[in-house]
Amino acid sequence: MPTEPTQSAVPTVPDPDGREAPGEVRTLADKIMEVHTWLRGQVRQVRAEVDAHFAAHAAHDGPGEPPAPNLGLQLRQRCLAFCQALRFHHTSEDEHVFPTMAVHHPDLADTFARLAEEHRTVARIQEELTALLADITIADPERFRTELDAMSRELNAHLDHEEKTVVPLLAHVPWPPPRASERPPEPPPRRS
């Protein structure tokens, strides 16, 4: 039974590199590309909010009321929501997608190990950003931007690598997955 495509409920931000999320999600590859597009868009949005936040603080020089704290709160909420979504995405890959794929593609063991290491690198940078967010109103703008730039570079390199090595293998996996009663029997794992 063919799987019905799902319309994306994930808001996307235009990518300056021209990457777009699939219009209809029919395969697991489409779903992962949709999530990757959203993650890249969130990093760009966080960057814009970081720049606005620190510009507002830099513009306030002298007596009078400092900028309203709502921009810092908005930035903190977006960053924390983004970090939580990214953590969920990487945990899902590490605990479900990659181990399942490894059974069918043992030749990619080194690829899966590298992707897991990239997940740990991104997670370490996320923790440093989260610590800086503890009080964004006094955070050092250059240090915060440096950490955000590092996460952006690492994350984009990771997503590019994953899209090159793993996503093509998922182009024939229907999304959403069929119900258990509709699934054909699984073939035995390939052996090297």
Describe the model:
By secondary structure, this protein is mainly alpha-helical. It is built from four helices and two strands. Strands 1-2 form a two-stranded antiparallel sheet. The chain starts with 5 loop residues before the first strand and ends in a 27-residue tail after the last helix. Mean pLDDT is 82; it is low at 5-13. It is elongated and about 70 Å long. Helix 1 (28-59) packs antiparallel against helix 2. Helix content is 61%, strand content 2%. The protein has helices at residues 28-59, 70-104, 109-133, 141-165; strands spanning 6-7, 24-25. The longest helix is centred in the middle third of the chain and has 35 residues, at 70-104.
Name the descriptors:
single chain, 192 residues, mainly alpha, two-stranded antiparallel sheet, 4 helices
Strands, total number = 2
Largest sheet: 2 strands, antiparallel
Strand sequence of the main sheet, in spatial order? Answer: 1-2
* Main structural class: mainly alpha
Give the termini distance in whole angstroms: 32 Å
Helix content: 55-70%
Cα radius of gyration in angstroms:
20 Å
Number of helices: 4
Sheet-strand content, in percent, reads: under 5%
Element-by-element helix/strand order: EEHHHH
The global form is elongated
Low-confidence stretches: 5-13
**How much is the average pLDDT?**
82
